[in-house]
Amino acid sequence: MKMLTTQLTGLLQRIATSEEENIEETARLLAQAAAREGSIYFATFGEMTSIAVNAQFAAEPFPSMKSWTPAVQLTSADRVWIIVRSAENEEALALAEHLSELFIPFSVLAAEPASEENQLANFAYTYISLKLTKGLLPAEDGSRIVLPYAMGAMFVYEAVKMKLDEMLLGE
User: What is the pLDDT of residue 170?
Assistant: First the structure.
């Protein structure tokens, strides 16, 4: 338990220190929709759907948030936040390409760091990496276990929401 706590604390600190600017840029991008009568669509995939559920039903819901589906008709006032475990997710890549064609600004949260090879990061207006490329704890067979993608994403979500609330409400 102590080792898990130590590793999780380290992960969250890595995200906080290395992604602080990207978190603020993401909040700024999403605030554009809330300030202009647009909607902030959460496009979540796999276990990251838990972030959209929290954003919608939390005690403090995310401002102007709606869940994205392929049937959504986006406007220029809307913004999209793609939240996905892997930047190689084909659905997320297809959505990013579509949003680029429509000139709809969007942000991405994924595990991998931004790089030349990371197409999702290259499409995005802002990109946040979870810095989670392998399990946090060693297993007896030498592999690595414990991949808390959703937990890391929830931390980023709370940081973005805090910044967004400051921008919109002056808190």
Answer: 75
